[in-house]
Structure formats: structure tokens, C-alpha cells
Amino acid sequence: MIYLAMFLTGLIAGRLAVVLSCWFLNDETTVQPARLGIARCAKCEQSLSAAAIQFKGLMKSRVICPGCRNSGPVWPSLVSAVTAIIFAGFTWLLIEGNCQTITEVRPSHQLVFDRLPFQLIFIFLMLVVTVTDLIDYAIPDFIIWIGIVVAVAGSTASGDLQMVHIWVDWSYELVEIYGPWLPEWMKHHQHLHGAAWSIAGLVTGAGIMLLIRIISSVILGQAAVGFGDVTLMMMIGAFMGWQPTLCVIAIAPIGGLLMGLFSQIAFARSFVAFGPYLTFSAFIVLCTWRILWEVLQLRIIFSHWPTVLSLVVGVLLMLSIMLGLLRLFKAVPASALKR
Fold first, then answer.
1. Do residues 205 and 237 touch, judged by C-beta distance below 8 A?
2. Are 93 and 287 in contact (CB under 8 A)?
3. Looking at residue 54, what is its pLDDT?
4. Residue 315 confidence (pLDDT)
5. How much is the pLDDT for 55?
6. Whole-angstrom Cα distance, residue 239 to residue 306?
7. Whole-number pLDDT of residue 195
8. What per-residue confidence (pLDDT) applies to 336?
9. 40: how many CB neighbours lie within 10 A of its CB?
10. Of the candidates 238, 242, 214, 241, which has an alpha carbon nearest to the alpha carbon of residue 227?
11. Does residue 60 sit in helix, strand or coil?
12. Nearest to 326 by CA among 252, 263, 249, 233
């Protein structure tokens, strides 16, 4: 029954995400509204804003133009359908699949009552960001800051929403006898710990993305990531914590680099939206956290500060090399690559 409820909730959430995207793009977009088919009619270009944003029309498959009676595009309905599948599927993975169940974290309440709503809000906010970024390379600050406030406030108020504690030590000698070592203060200050892990994730996401932005600006002469991507990683970090955030940052550039090269060859475009790769990577980490932490033994790496710092420095060095190669690649004319 809960999965049907989540499916129906996802249908509404998907359409609401489209409506919010329409609202943001109608105010700030550089894309022709008629091309989108959500702010203006693609046929007669009459404004559809009022009809699209009315909440009573959220469940309609398409918005009908009041002037020429032309039906709107199909993609908003696809967004709703995909969101419904994501909501229901993620609920199953969290509750039945135990995708985030790890040894160190033992919630005091059932996940369906606290972590599930918290992370579904997170997924919804990422969906809005993804839609707007794909359409117009725009990440709405309003959504980002709402997400950050919800993440930090919710984590602090609950004290029980973490995927992993802010620090877990699996490296000391007696771990096989006594289990992982946890800082004593976390046990007595649950709400403080909630604020700490959320803010640590926020700072980690923002800090590393700022470093990537600075490095790419120096090597390429232009930032490889926009400032919106920096704030997006702040939100992702605030919802997930610093360890999952590092995993997201490690996964996302792989897809971004491949798509960037493809875009350069096929369309001679040097810029692609990076936000969707960050949100997709964040969702992958949400769904596979137990595998990453326990099966792949990332808990050993994240128990040792020197190793963590070495990996971060190594990733930044590899990124610098890749960006240097990309700069050389971009110097080759697109016409020569197509021969």
C-alpha cells in the first residue's frame, strides 16, 4: 500500500516540479518560451503561465492553449511518470532493500517515518534543479537555499537522519572485539550531531566544488562548473553528509567529462550542464550507500584522515591533468575531428 501511495505522490511531485521549473524559467529564461511549450504555446505563442501554474491542473497530462486549443508537450507527463517510479522504487530500496542500512547507524525510529520523507524532499528538490538546468543551464537559487535550510534544520531537529555518523573509526586495533569507535559526544548530544554532520557535508561539497572551479578557470581559461553547481553541492552535502558527498563528487565528473567530449565532437559545444550529473550521482549514492560503505569497504578509507586527504588531493591532481588534456583537445578544430 505504501508503494502505491509513493507512486501517486511521485506523480504529483513530478508535475509540481515541472510547474516550478516553468515558473523559474518564465522569469529568468534565455530560451524562447514557445520552444519549451510550457510558458507559451508552441503554435500561437500565447502565454500559458496561468494555466500551467494552476494547482488544479497538476494532474492533467497536457496544458491546452486557450487560444488555438493546441495541446502542450509530452515531456512534463514523462517527468511525472519517471518521478512516480523513482519515489516508489526508492521507497522499496530503503525499506525492503536496506540500501542505507549499515552497522554503525541504528535509527531510533522506523525509516519510513523520518529518513524516507526527508530524502524524498531531497529527491524532489534535485528533480526541479535537473529540469531547469537541462532546459536553460540555470539552477534556481531559491530552491537551493530552501533545500539547505530544510536539510540543516531537519537534521538538527531530528538528530536521527544521518546516512552515516560524522566520524566512525574502523582502523583501531580492537575493532574486531568492540566494533567501530564513535566519538562519545555524539551519543549524548544527538541534535548537535545532526547539525554537525549536515554542516560538514555542506562545507565539503562547497569547498571541493570551489577548488574545481578555481583549478578549471586557471587551466581552461573558463570555469568548468558554474557557481550554481557549487551551491547545488552545498545542498547535496547538507542532505547527505561529508562521506557520501565525496562519493558523489568522485562519480559525477566521469559522466560529465564523457558528455563534454561528445558535445564538443558532435555539436562543437564547449559547455554542458553539469548539475544533472551531480543530482544523478547523488541519487545513485542514496540507492547504493550500504554497498559503497560495507561491501566496497569505504568505511576503512573514511576512518583515516591522511588517506581521505590524500585521495582528495589525488583526485584534484587527476582532474588537473584531465582538464589540461581537454584544453589540448579543444584546440583541435571541430571540423578536423569529424573527418
1. yes
2. yes
3. 45
4. 77
5. 44
6. 25
7. 96
8. 54
9. 20
10. 214
11. coil
12. 263
Q: Are the CB atoms for 25 and 15 separated by under 8 Å?
A: no
User: What span, in angstroms and rounded, lies between the C-alpha atoms of 171 and 183?
Assistant: 14
- Answer whether 242's CB lies under 8 Å from 291's CB: no
Chunked in runs of 10, what are the mean pLDDT values of the chain (339 residues)? 92 88 62 47 57 46 60 76 96 94 84 90 95 82 94 94 89 63 83 95 94 84 81 96 93 68 55 79 94 92 88 80 68 56
Q: What is the DSSP code string of 165-209?
A: -S--B--STTHHHH--B--HHHHH-HHHHHHHHHHHHHHHHHHHH
Contact 212, 219 (CB under 8 A): no
User: What is the rounded distance in angstroms from the CA atom of residue 21 to the CA atom of residue 276?
Assistant: 14
The residue behind cell 538546468 is 133
> Per the structure block, which three cell numbers stand in for 211?
577548488
Residues, the chain, total? 339
Residue 20 carries which side chain, given as an amino acid letter? L
Q: Where are the domains of the chain?
A: 150-337
Q: What is the rounded CA–CA span in Å between residue 45 and residue 37?
A: 9
Helix axes 227-240, 190-220, angle to 10 degrees: 150
CA distance linking residue 252 with residue 338, whole number of Å: 27
